[in-house]
Write a structure and sequence with these properties.
The complex is a heterodimer of chains A (356) and B (479). Chain A is 42% helix and 7% strand. Chain A is an alpha/beta fold and 356 residues long. Chain A has one domain. In chain A, strands 2-1-3-4-5-6 form a 6-stranded mixed sheet. In chain A, helix 4 runs parallel beside helix 9 (226-239). Chain A is elongated and about 80 Å long. Chain B contains 21 helices and no strands. In chain B, helix 3 packs parallel to helix 5, helix 4 packs antiparallel against helix 5 (122-138) and helix 13 packs antiparallel against helix 14 (324-343). Chain B has 2 domains: 6-181, no CATH class; 185-478, no CATH class. The two termini of chain B are 16 Å apart. Chain B is globular and about 80 Å long. Classes of the chains: A alpha/beta (356), B mainly alpha (479). The A-B interface holds A 1, 3-4, 8, 10-11, 13-15, 17-18, 21, 163-164, 166 and B 20, 24, 181, 183, 186-187, 190, 453, 456-457, 460-461, 464-467, 469.
């Protein structure tokens, strides 16, 4: 029996080989928070970015929150100083399918772990109206940092259990052997400086093209936790002296119309009951033209820059930006501030735009 | 608790260690040691069964009790033995018969009923119980006085879910024997388990990913894809079921019990008759001994013999499932076998190798065609599949002339590596070829330790790295 057990113990060797491969290849980069490998597999950005910020508590004090669409708010257009003259160091905390409920939990985690936050910009769109926080580790790309906090072993085990993606190996090795100044390393440093994978300083507009097919959207229902999450976030920010800016995304017309059919305008109405926000949604010069978008949901940095001019620019810049965004359909000006008092009028304007 | 899961492996090792510890502690009191081991195994079997569905535990227990009583009654009665065995066998088979007939009624007459959940292993342990009753009736077995042994025989956890259907004459006496720790037997069992896991998790389940994607695709399907899916299904089914059999036979061996072979290179058969001597051996031999032979077997005239064959295969079809396709599939094999009987195929030894390979290929084609019926939900689906093969020439022309990607015509799912799955299949077939006339276990044990351990590590790494993302339920679990 002892001989048998001793020999069975030798099978720890293939187990360790598997473990090593799993950790090394690490498609979702959860084991490589400080050395992310940029491959065609989208990493678990919620976990990586949160952990990275917590590991560098003093480096950032201002954050952009939302889904990946907010990735194209260029760093250059964000304010360098806060209202009280403090320097702002921005980090883009956005990731695929990010939702207000998760964003709220992220902000709480930051504060609970000693990160000083001066300013927040949260971008909501028609994903926010139906996407609630993901629970558990079932879908590895979306497992949140908070899931890790509840049970780190279970969290990491879920990734180790996942078969290592062997075809990713060449890309991983290329990342690890990348030389100074290479495109790979530049993208990596951008990720750690501002939280984006691609330089969003390219203000080019695409060529005129057909409208993209709408991005998938689900209905806005009572099950949505987004409005309540924004309310809690606002309260939390007020209690902790954090400047919060809520903005709605300029959604491409095809996706916007589908979103409206699924209740997006009701969502915007409910949102106004908990916070004021800047409304960039609606039909304007940008949302009606696919050339300002990479696809049916991601606006180009050019549009992001125009949004920043409305949010943070001087009066002149703001006026020019609003005027440029105006089109024959536009009733609600680009970046209108929506409050509980004027929301009905704004929504009425958006409805009128759709009818034109 | 599927036998290919980490949970089962953990469960098995826990039982294995406990049973061997018991045997070691009480090795001086052999009868007590055997008694405690059997209690442990019965307890483990009950836990194993309850894990799948607690409410059905009464089924194997009741069948076990009926078997036990049948043995006692048959052992004591000297008259009306035939009526008694028919009554008890009827009782043992009754639950299976009821489920099948209800299912058949639903299928044939489109009667809406709530989905019937069949107790785990019902098709297997009921047949296994009959072998005990029959053994006592025939006198090949003495009536077992200890009810625990009969219960253990009926519900023995390695084989309760999907067989093999063990013969009482072979398995039951083993529970009365004193078992010692046999290093060679145990390691042979573990090797077989590992081999079974490779067949199931790496080859069968990866093939299943492709086959299910093709069969489940919406709209019209490419004939080439359906043909490839049909050809691969033959192997998926074989590897899935024989993989399961290897796991449970290996598991039983490691515990000290011999269950016998359930598959013996069936796709290297030169006739349908030989195929059924090599495929699901425990079931086909049960049908031969308890259906075909009682009907008269081959000792009657040619016409009656063929009728007996057809009835036996119809029963086989019905055993597999309560639907028209199963019965048609069974009859299809019955007709093929009848044709072989009439033409005298399979009676003569084939000496020439090319002719042998031609016969192997032809048998494979016949069997694969049968699997198309076996795997279809309706005869309409069978017809659609066969009609789709007629489109293959035009599809091939599309590839050559229009440059349509082969992957598209073969409907390979995005991200799925069909080539790798085929490499694994070919690799397996190569290994299988070497073990046709030689025991695989003897072959591996004859190698040097470095080569042996290299093989074991390679097997473990293949399972760890290449087992399918979603392991499907064993196909034969459904029967």
């Amino acid at each position: 029996m002892k001989k048998l057990l001793a020999k069975l113990c030798l099978f720890i060797i293939p187990a360790f080989i598997y473990l090593g491969a799993s950790i090394y290849i690490d498609a979702y980069n959860v084991f490589h928070v400080d050395n992310i490998r940029l491959t065609y597999v989208t990493p678990n950005q919620n976990f990586i970015k949160t952990k990275y910020v917590l590991n560098n508590k003093d480096r950032f004090n201002a954050f952009v929150l939302g889904s990946s669409r907010a990735g194209n708010l260029p760093l250059d257009g964000l304010p360098k100083m806060g209202p009280e003259g403090q320097k702002l160091h921005w980090y883009n905390m956005t990731y695929a399918m990010g939702c207000p409920e998760e964003n709220y939990q992220t902000v709480r985690t930051f504060l609970d772990n000693g990160v000083k936050i001066e300013e927040l910009v949260i971008l909501v769109d028609e994903i926010s109206m139906w996407r609630n926080a993901f629970e558990g580790t079932g879908d590895l790309i979306f497992a949140t940092y908070q899931t890790y906090e509840e049970n780190p072993l279970k969290f990491y085990y879920a990734y180790i259990k996942q078969k290592p993606l062997l075809k990713l190996l060449p890309a991983v090795i290329e990342n690890d052997l990348a030389e100074e100044g290479s495109e790979v390393l530049l993208k990596k440093s951008l990720f750690y400086e501002y939280g984006v994978g691609e330089a969003n300083t390219d203000m080019a507009i695409g060529s005129p093209t057909n409208m993209f097919e709408p991005e998938r959207s689900l209905e806005y229902t009572e099950a949505s936790t987004s409005v309540e999450s924004v309310r809690r976030l606002k309260e939390f920010c007020d209690e902790n002296g954090i400047e919060l800016l809520v903005i709605t995304s300029p959604v491409l017309e095809s996706t916007y119309r589908q979103g409206v059919d699924n209740g997006y305008l009701d969502f915007l109405t409910d949102l106004a009951s908990v916070t004021d926000y800047y409304c960039f949604s609606g039909l304007n010069a940008y949302t009606r033209e696919a050339m300002y978008y990479f696809d049916a949901s991601h606006f180009r940095p050019y549009v992001g820059r125009e949004m920043e001019k409305v949010l943070f620019g001087n009066d002149n810049e703001r006026m020019n930006s609003v005027s440029e965004a105006c089109s024959v359909a536009t009733v609600v000006p680009f970046g209108t501030i929506v409050t509980a008092d004027n929301v009905d009028e704004v929504i009425g304007g958006l409805v009128q735009e759709l009818g034109k | 608790m599927p036998v290919y899961t980490k949970l089962f492996v953990t469960f098995f090792f826990a039982i294995f260690l406990t049973v061997n510890m018991v045997r070691r502690i009480w090795n001086e009191n052999k009868s007590f040691c055997t008694f405690i081991s059997n209690i442990l195994l019965l307890g483990a079997s009950i836990v194993f069964y309850c894990w799948s569905n607690l409410r059905f535990i009464l089924f194997p227990i009741t069948i076990g009790v009926i078997s036990y009583v049948s043995g006692i009654v048959l052992g004591r009665c000297h008259s009306y033995k035939k009526s008694i065995i028919l009554a008890f066998a009827g009782l043992e088979l009754l639950p299976l018969l009821v489920y099948r007939l209800v299912g058949l009624r639903t299928d044939l007459f489109d009667v809406p009923t709530e989905e019937l959940i069949i107790p785990l292993g019902l098709s297997f342990f009921t047949l296994q119980a009959v072998t005990y009753t029959h053994g006592v009736y025939k006198g090949t077995l003495s009536a077992e006085r200890n009810p625990l042994i009969v219960l253990l025989f009926v519900s023995f956890f390695p084989c309760v879910s999907s067989g093999p259907i063990a013969r009482a004459e072979k398995l039951l006496p083993q529970f009365g024997e004193y078992k010692v720790f046999d290093y060679d037997e145990i390691t042979d069992g573990l090797r077989l388990m590992g081999w079974g896991l490779l067949k199931k998790l790496v080859i069968a389940d990866n093939l299943a990913t492709y086959i299910q994607a093709v069969r489940g695709a919406e709209g019209e399907k490419y004939g080439m894809a359906l043909l490839l899916a049909a050809l691969l299904y033959s192997f998926q089914l074989y590897l899935d079921f024989s993989g399961y059999s290897d796991i449970v036979i290996g598991c039983a061996n490691a515990l000290g019990y011999e269950l016998g072979k359930n598959f013996d290179h069936p796709y290297l058969s030169v006739s349908i008759g030989e195929f059924w001597r090599r495929w699901h051996i425990s079931l086909s031999s049960w049908l031969r001994d308890f259906v075909y032979i009682p009907l008269g077997g081959g000792r009657v005239g040619a016409l009656r013999k063929n009728l007996n064959t057809l009835i036996t295969f119809a029963v086989s079809g019905l055993w597999h499932g309560a639907g028209i396709t199963w019965i048609v599939w069974g009859l299809y094999h019955g007709i093929c076998l009848c044709i072989e009987n009439i033409l005298g195929i399979g009676k003569n030894v084939i000496v020439s190798t090319p002719r042998r390979w031609l016969r192997i290929f032809w048998t494979y084609v016949i069997v694969t065609f049968g699997w198309i019926i076996f795997a279809s939900d309706s005869l309409h689906e069978v017809a659609d599949t066969i009609v789709s093969f007629g489109r293959i020439p035009s599809e091939m022309a599309m590839i050559v002339a229009d440059g349509i990607a082969v992957n598209r015509v073969l409907m390979v799912p995005h991200g799925f590596n069909l080539a790798l799955s085929l490499v694994f299949l070919v690799g397996y077939l190569g290994i299988s070829g070497t073990t046709y006339r030689n025991s695989g276990l003897k072959l591996i044990k004859s190698k040097k330790p470095v080569i042996r351990w290299g093989g074991y590590f390679a097997l473990a790494l293949l399972i760890l790295f290449f087992s399918a993302e979603n392991s499907g339920e064993f196909i034969y679990n459904r029967f």
